[in-house]
Design goal:
YaeB-like fold; DUF6235; alpha+beta; about 110 residues
């Protein structure tokens, strides 16, 4: 019998707590390919692979919020709330820094 401690190297799994309204407001204005890209990124966040798969940029002005480059012209902002939960803050086109903090974006 050994007393080895097991190291759990599993990737954390996240659940989306809020942001459904952001997704619902953004979806009708977006193309199918952009919606598919966002859904794929959300599934990557859920299974813990987002930080390995996507380019993620910290928002140094708001703690726990990051920008996820979903496609060349599409960014999603998420808030990591705790070790297993996140919110969608905004979804929209990549643009100027002043545009990133102005509430909800619309697809172009």
């Amino acid at each position: 019998m050994t007393n080895e401690s097991r190291v759990d190297n599993t990737t954390p799994r996240y659940r989306m707590e809020s942001g459904f309204d952001v997704l619902e407001d953004w979806s009708p204005t977006a193309s199918q390919s952009k919606r598919n890209a966002v859904y794929k990124a959300l599934f990557a966040m859920q299974d813990g692979s987002m930080f390995r798969t996507y380019r993620v940029i910290d928002d140094f002005q708001r703690a726990n919020e990051v920008f996820v480059i979903v496609k060349d012209d599409l960014v999603m902002k998420i808030r990591v709330k705790c070790v297993d939960a996140f919110d969608i803050v905004a979804i929209g086109p990549c643009g100027h820094m002043t545009d990133l903090h102005t509430g909800r974006w619309q697809a172009t």
